[in-house]
Amino acid sequence: QLHQRGFRCLHGVDGSAGMLERARSTGLYRRLRPCVLGREPLPAPAEHYDAVTVVGALGEGQVPSVAMPELLRVTKPGGFLCLTTRSNPSNLRYKVELEAVLERLERQGAWQKVLAQEVERWERATSEEENTQGTGYISGVIYVYRKCPVPASRRA
Hints:
By secondary structure, the protein is an alpha/beta fold. It has helices spanning 17-26, 68-73, 92-107, 152-155, and strands at 10-14, 29-34, 49-58, 75-86, 111-124, 137-147. The strands form two sheets. It has a four-stranded mixed sheet with strand order 3-4-6-5. The protein has a two-stranded parallel ribbon with strand order 1-2. The longest helix is centred in the middle third of the chain and has 16 residues, at 92-107. Residues 4-82 form the Methyltransferase type domain.
């Protein structure tokens, strides 16, 4: 979808060599690098990207919520961060923890919330336990933040 909308300079990271190879096979990415978010820094300089997205990786046992400052580090001031997580029962503890981190960064003036939108039919449920509303889907949330400019007093 991003490529179809004119975004052509896409870089990607993943902790799995198999997922990197799968991404490489699409021909959509200019650069793909191994990185385990939350355990190591992103392979990019500070304030490098206009936009950073994390889709399908913010969940229990995946990218820890403590990785948010690292995502901010590589985003240009005024740039956007688009994050998603699931709202299914097995991810609710993580979602609460993630939202606490998101809110703390907003209170600290690191970014401003542009959007937090629940999506009822986020993805297909993989078990009856997750299929809580009988739709065959689980819900999720899309968060969009805009990185705030760094005050001159904090640049030194």
